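User: Predict the structure for this protein chain, please.
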Amino acid sequence: MSSYDLKQEVTDKYSLRGRVFSKIREDILSGKYKDHEELKEVAIGEELGVSRTPVREAFRQLELEGLIQIVPNKGAYVTGITAKDVEDIYMIRSLLEGLCARWATEHITQEQLEELEENVYLADFHAAKGHLDQMAELDNHFHHILYEACNSKQLARLLIDFHEYVLRVRKKTLSNGGRGKISNDEHRQIMEAIKEKDGERAETLAHEHIINAYNNMVKNGLYQIYPMEDADSREP
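Assistant: Here is the predicted structure, written as structure tokens:
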């Protein structure tokens, strides 16, 4: 089986339709559009310099993802994500990241392994300097190397989406409570398990890493960033 090309997947994602969808989703997840806010096809089309057609198509996809609700004869309204959604994402992601680490152990190339080692080394350097933005970027990149190394297009796509969904809260809480340094120490252990071809240990460590990340979020602002609203109450 040929290696999965994550770079090509990202390129495909940024077709015109993909760019429109990704930009609107990014604006929802970043908080630009608030919960229950109406999204206007014409206004968004003008802002992005596109016709209403790709915006309308993006709305349909966003509704399938649960980020907006289209109400007939009324419009499209932001539903966003809640603290419960974040918890669900992390519990699911903990299992999928474990599977990803196990598969990466089987398929990782020498070049990808060297990328992981360099990532861990650079993250240590920036942690010592207190460079929080660089730490966040390196944290993202570590996981994306694993997504590519697992050699599964389907698994990589799911994990990339989950990663993007909680970007707001990850950026905030990674800088609190010394989590950045601890997180990188956990990355090192995962990398070493993969290097030793110990798929079972890599899976366990990756699972625990995501659970630890979620617990840190709870301690450092999850409920201040996202509402504790039930999905049933999301009526515009």
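The chain has two domains: 6-78, 83-225.
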